[in-house]
Amino acid sequence: MKVLVCISHVPDTTSKINFTSDNKEFDKNGVQFVINPYDEFGLTRAIWLKEKQGATVTAINVGKAETEPTLRKALAIGADDAIRIDADATDGFYVAQQIAAVAKENNYDLIIAGRESIDYNGGQVAGMLAALLNQPFVNACVGLEVEGSNATLMREIDGGKETLTASLPLVIGGQKGLVEEKDLRIPNMRGIMSARTKPLAVKPATDGASRVQVGSFEKPAPKSAVTMVEADNMDELVKLLHEEAKVI
Amino acid sequence: MSVLVYLENWEGKFKKNTFEAAQYAAKTAEMMGTSVIGVTFGTISDDAAELGKYGVSKVLNLSGDDYNSFDNYKIAAALKEVAAAQNCDTLIVSGTFNGKAVAPLYSVMAEAGMITNVTELPSSVAPLTVKRSVFSSKGFVNYSTEASSKVIVFIPNAVGVVAGSGSAEMTESNVSLGDLPQTNVTNVDRVQGKIPLPEAERVISGGRGLKGPENWSMVEELAELMNAGTACSKPVADMGWRPHNEHVGQTGIAINPELYVAIGISGAIQHLAGVSNSKTIVVINSDAEAPFFKAADYGIVGDAFEVVPKFIEALKKFKA
Ligand SMILES: Cc1cc2nc3c(=O)[nH]c(=O)nc-3n(C[C@H](O)[C@H](O)[C@H](O)COP(=O)(O)OP(=O)(O)OC[C@H]3O[C@@H](n4cnc5c(N)ncnc54)[C@H](O)[C@@H]3O)c2cc1C
Ligand SMILES: Nc1ncnc2c1ncn2[C@@H]1O[C@H](COP(=O)(O)O)[C@@H](O)[C@H]1O
């Protein structure tokens, strides 16, 4: 079984987000980048498939050279090899086209992407990739078991969960639940050493279009000062919520 | 060219999400100087006429075996066929779990420019330009698309709903779907009697300060009194005190309710990222230095085990 794990390279969750002075771009200055948290769950699930069912795991990223440490981290966690498509990830559709082109060449049995990237929160690439490849798609996937060419999956739905079956090849948009937080792999010294020699192929981008244009960024409006309410005066809180905030 | 809207139903019933999508689409159509057409799938038990109050007077219902359980490809393909047949170039989708699964498939099939995580009505329609949230609410940006076909996915509760007058007419319709990749739903497990988080107008949330799962009954009582959903911080879900689908924040569900009450939650940056869009935030924390107070509208410094029961009492008095 060949598994492809899509890895988005995103600011660490503790990052303060700033934009360049003309507000045209995200300011990467001083920002630490990490594997997108949603992709970490998918990567660990893929490594379990490798350890228990003999899968091979390839990590892929669409990005410039600056994303390589993130791919190396995926290798250190346990991916067998990695592919970087040398292009700026301009929008979800562009990224999906790039990954689809690689997937068409290599016939993966399973493609694991994340439900969304925590940078642009697109929630697009996984589904678009499935549609471009004409493969079944399960989004917000919280459970995955593979037996032969059949998969049993669970996905989150509004107010519950749904169980599904599908045949491989297929594409999922994964999240926590594929594995739990405590199962996430952290690279160890041996992993980090071996990652240095694992193959990381850099491929040129194929043709692809973007369908959206990005305008100027802004930060959320600052919060007005907090109104403190005495702990033994909850009648006052209820009054404020009713009369001032008008939420009850 | 008209605007199409995916009117989701849950076992035949419409919810606030559905009405919000209808209204979003109707207002967008008005800006474009055109009409709006709704599409809903499966057997409908609610009165479709209701949708008219939110500006959609024409609704097509596609039913039959294909739509008995949710299949993202079938819905996406059907929407594409209806859009073509009805001359619609813009699709509006609410960002529910189902909506988020359908929209990217549709965008590829219909060659549509896709804008997701949208927080407002379009600011312009030529080219279509809308504001969206990025970096988990740490920023916003305008996206526009000049593609001839478009799909907008807005965040539930982003624009709200106001019922007007009007009535909708629903007609049966069908389209042929062709060969599509398949998934088969074998089980649906819906938690009964709870308000799903993305659509909750009020949310009561507990953190590690509540000490253990046995202490959630006061959170639930508060939620029930306020007709609210319940949520929690990430460690609370990771420790198994509460189910994962209650985990809010940057790596959980992002919400934007009218009211968010955070009890015993410190207000870490990753938590704030998913909840800071809430219109009113109440923070109850025993530590006056807790970072959450900086993001709060109303703050109470105190022990949750004393404050929350008093809050419940005050609410009961208010409701009586
Ligand atoms: C990659 C990554 C992603 C993350 N994503 C998320 C996310 O999506 N959502 C999220 O929530 N977190 C997330 N976190 C975790 C986050 O950093 C914090 O650790 C977490 O939010 C803290 O949870 P908490 O506030 O419940 O617990 P704590 O930080 O332990 O805070 C407990 C609070 O309760 C107060 N308290 C204690 N006793 C009482 C009492 N009797 N009455 C009232 N108050 C009391 C304390 O003063 C304290 O402020 C993420 C972390 C990482 C590294
Ligand atoms: N530049 C990228 N390279 C590789 N995978 C990506 C990239 N961007 C997004 N993805 C994958 O697509 C998922 C959803 O991303 P998005 O649609 O951008 O929210 C992510 O969790 C990744 O798995």
Write up what this structure looks like.
The complex is a heterodimer of chains A (248) and B (320). Chain A is α/β, with parallel strands linked by helices and 248 residues long. Chain A has one domain: Rossmann fold. Chain A contains 6 helices and 13 strands. Chain A has helices at 37-53, 68-77, 92-106, 125-133, 189-197, 234-244, and strands spanning 2-6, 9-11, 33-35, 56-63, 81-86, 110-114, 137-147, 150-157, 160-167, 170-174, 200-204, 213-218, 227-228. In chain A, helix 2 (68-77) crosses helix 5 and helix 3 (92-106) packs across helix 4. Chain B contains 7 helices and 16 strands. Chain B folds into 2 domains: 2-173, Rossmann fold (3-Layer(aba) Sandwich), CATH 3.40.50; 197-319, Rossmann fold (3-Layer(aba) Sandwich). In chain B, the strands form 3 sheets. A 7-stranded parallel sheet of chain B has the order 5-9-4-1-2-3-10, sandwiched between helices. In chain B, strands 13-12-14-15-16 form a 5-stranded parallel sheet. In chain B, helix 2 packs across helix 3 (97-109) and helix 4 packs parallel to helix 7 (304-319). At the A-B interface, helix 3, helix 4, strand 7, strand 8 and strand 9 of A face helix 2, helix 3, strand 5, strand 7 and strand 8 of B. Strand 9 (160-167) of chain A pairs antiparallel with strand 11 (184-190) of chain B. Residues 207-209, 233-236, 249-252, 264-266, 268, 270-271, 274, 284-287, 290, 303-305 of chain B line the site of flavin-adenine dinucleotide. Flavin-adenine dinucleotide binds at residues 207-209, 233-236, 249-252, 264-266, 268, 270-271, 274, 284-287, 290, 303-305 of chain B.
